């Protein structure tokens, strides 16, 4: 629901009157099942309970809650990407959950478990003895002709004994009102994280509803799922990794949410390496063994040595870890085979053969065109069927359908030719219009409910005692009747799924499960994550440097140093500021009018060195670290982005821009405060701090070259103090005005000034001492030796010594120090020393 739905309604309106007004225009389509109205045309009991509870709130109160939800989504950075689109879109949480009664859910769960067992049994036979094909129960072409059948895995017994650890199915009601499966998801099912995010948001929005309506809880499922991922691992305390394709994956945000919630290590292919037949994670502490891997990339991209050689997402040789049983994987590569719609005509027979019982959950009637009888039926009824690729899971009629009943004659002719040439590549299904559920609309007289098409994805996880079904799911609802919501994209909203129990629900308490072994370490840090944290710190510091430089050009610096350059664009300090902003690519030209120059430096979208560009870069690095950053950090980053996203076509006054710069500095200070007060002092914190400290030292040295050189004027020295945020300290220490040597001492050499270069280098040295050493020979590593030398020069140097030559040499050393840290902990290139050579395997 958007804020546009907010309207004025009589708060004294009775609950019954309010519900009657909401549902007065609710009209279902003939022949389509609906969630709100049952087969008898009357509201279902669970929906009556929900609407009565909603009716106890005025529409203004409902809107206030959803405005709060939208704010939380924005602050927490919950978003999604459409495949092929690099932009992030705000998470489209709908205003109405899908509610299902407990008895119906129990029947649905039984059917889902049966289907998961059936898929497991089919995979076990296909990759094992092959009896189904040998006896004619399953056509060989459906197996061998499917690109998801991975020949290198034939005969490989899955470590832990199971091909599937997570099974999902997309469901809707069929014409008879019973739930049916639109698609099986066994490759790398997505949506579990979205379901978790939806529940967390609505739990904040309607906390009282969950208890009043007896909504089933989710934590026990996620705990069971996490334990199930480790089943079969060789070690008692296994390291479980979630393999992602990276921040530009359309489902990366949910993957990060799951890694954070379940306590998994979020890794990309480059973070992993095979050694001695086992999979390891590259960390800043050396190679650390991975015992279980939950993959969220398609199997074909998993191992470029044996599968797709063009893949840059997987790990060379990882299939060997499956063959020798040293790695548990969810789900096993090749499990995507049973997503094929070509299996549908045979599933009931296979279920009777393998499980000894009929199939509980049906699917739209399907014909495989590789079967002669099926092909004959399809050719005779082509005008009323939907034709799809046999080996591609159904993603919606608008995405992968080759032919629909409304197709043009030219399309029909092409399909006829395709069926003649390669009929086994296609399946045909009877059209299955989606069932509907209530969604909000806004009219002249207020809010009202209308039926909207929806699909719900439900999940089952394998545990030590068998399959368990999550008592909820991930629902997608279309905002328009002609948009198929089988895949999340614009025009689709998500919804939480509430299973309403007929008995009071006891929320699981923290600590109600068996207590884990006490530990204080936060786990090992992948080198890629350390790299991201290092650059996150550097970009945040760069944004601050540009903002301070811009603010120095917009206002005076107070009585302590008695300078004012805001009205003197030709003063030496102002000229130096402009030159530096131009050198940093913060502005298009150094001779712009003051207000325009400041606007570009702060908010320029086309200037790669603007404060906005650096905040964007910091947020981009943070996006790759979602599993490691708090919600408060995301909130500050979102506020910073808003602050610096000014309309560049509109002119702002110098006063407005100065206010904007001051608020930006306040938010950057909040970001720094969160790092100090809310971040565990583990390896990740050290790298974020190293990035900040190194960048601040480099920037301060650059400022000193421009504003504290031998020709510096009082205005330049005042600017230097302002840029180092040291005016007050200087004024309290020296009664007279700014002088060269005292200013240099304060901003370069003073170990007590948290803005001085000396202070930054001391901090860098402490952080480096906390990180793992390159070798156990007791010798200092090159970057540590360099940091020690810089530290010594600053400790024993005198302010008068730091002329332009000495400052330039110091700046070069600081840049070399930054490069040395990068080369040591984030090596790149085929011949770079990898962290596995640094310490023993763990």
Automatic annotation (TrEMBL):
Tree of life domain: Bacteria
Domain (Circularly permuted ATP-grasp type): residue spans on this chain: 97-477
Limits of the DUF403 domain: 525-826
SUPFAM superfamilies: Glutathione synthetase ATP-binding domain-like
InterPro entries from the UniProt entry: ATP-dep_Glu-Cys_Ligase-2, CP_ATPgrasp_2, DUF403
Name by which UniProt lists this protein: Circularly permuted type 2 ATP-grasp protein
Organism: Methylobacterium komagatae
